[in-house]
Amino acid sequence: MTGIAPTITLRNGAEIPALGLGTYSLNGDDGAAVISAAIKAGYRLLDTAENYRNEDAVGAGLADSGVPRSELFVTTKFNREWHSVDGARRAFHASIAKLGVDYVDLLLIHWPNPDQDQYVDAVRGLKALLDDGLLRAIGTSNFKPAHLRRVIDETGIVPDVNQIQLSPYHPRTEDRAFAVDHGIVIESWSPIGGSGDDLRSEPVITELAEAKGKTPAQVILRWHHQLGLVSIPRSSSPDRAKQNLAIFDFELTDDEVVAIAALDRHGAGLSDSDTQGH
Ligand SMILES: NC(=O)c1ccc[n+]([C@@H]2O[C@H](COP(=O)([O-])OP(=O)(O)OC[C@H]3O[C@@H](n4cnc5c(N)ncnc54)[C@H](OP(=O)(O)O)[C@@H]3O)[C@@H](O)[C@H]2O)c1
Question: What is the pTM of this model?
């Protein structure tokens, strides 16, 4: 029995599941079937984006699962062209139409795009949607502490969540400290290292997996959980998706958490959101 992930309370009061399903590349009928199966297996948090062009498949998966909307936590994100107060609202309406829902639990600004210099207004747009009861929580993605500091200084608005690339290769110590200081919950993208098997094959990971009778992915996901991070691993395999959710019945010691973080690649392979984004 996989069970359902525990939740973490966000600063605006919403309860976010501690682990969810990443849905990048889960498109069409096949994607919808994977998403529906994952929800039936216990997933409650789904992470999609305008940019993945799969909000329709996520919506079909939600509907097919039979799980009531109120028990699900749906996250989506919008692109740079919507970085304004009105734009955030238009992006929201486009997303809910594709998802087939009437509210979104968490709406994220996908990338800060500082070259465009409009992310502060995009955050104002999120807050207006939150105040109108159309969102349960608001957030950013790929924001560095400097971007978040500017948002907070100029608007007084503190996002509930910042979703960033974070794994043992990229432990993002300064970003985590900033988040803790401001009551922001971090969501880790590419939490188990993405498509390549490098991270999951690291000896410190495989040895711990062996010792605990768990898989490498489970050890890595447990590491995120013990750091207070929400992770959103993706799998196109129902069995691996189930496996990824089954991390709430074992523990890493503090020393093991530190040993895993020593895989830090000090920025090599990290996306730079000052120059990348859409
Ligand atoms: N905000 C952003 O800018 C941003 C950027 C990137 C990603 N994301 C979000 O984060 C989610 C997760 O990131 P990601 O998809 O890049 O990477 P990930 O979840 O770290 O890794 C996915 C890869 O791991 C494999 N995998 C999954 N479970 C496994 C297991 N138990 N054992 C072995 N291999 C396993 C998957 O293959 P199989 O499918 O074959 O299992 C897939 O190739 C995305 O889907 C998306 O929702 C957000």
Answer: 0.98
Which 3 state secondary structure label does DSSP give 170? strand
Please report which helix (H) or strand (E) contains residue 141, including its range: strand 135-141
What separation in Å is there between the alpha carbon of 193 and the centre of ligand 1?
Answer: 7
All domains of the chain, ordered by start, with CATH? 13-195+229-236 (3.20.20.100)
What is the 3-class SS of 185-233, one letter each residue? Answer: EEEEECCCCCCCCCHHHCHHHHHHHHHHCCCHHHHHHHHHHHCCCEECC
Q: Whose CA is nearest to atom 46 of ligand 1?
A: 22
Report the separation in Å between the CA atom of 259 and the middle of ligand 1, taken as the mean of its atom positions: 23
**100-134: pLDDT as tens digits:** 999 999 999 999 999 999 999 999 999 999 999 99
22-46: pLDDT as tens digits: 999 999 999 999 999 999 999 999 9
Report d(CA 225, CA 237) in Å as an integer. Answer: 22
C-beta of 252 in contact with ligand 1 (< 6 A) = no
24 in active site:
no
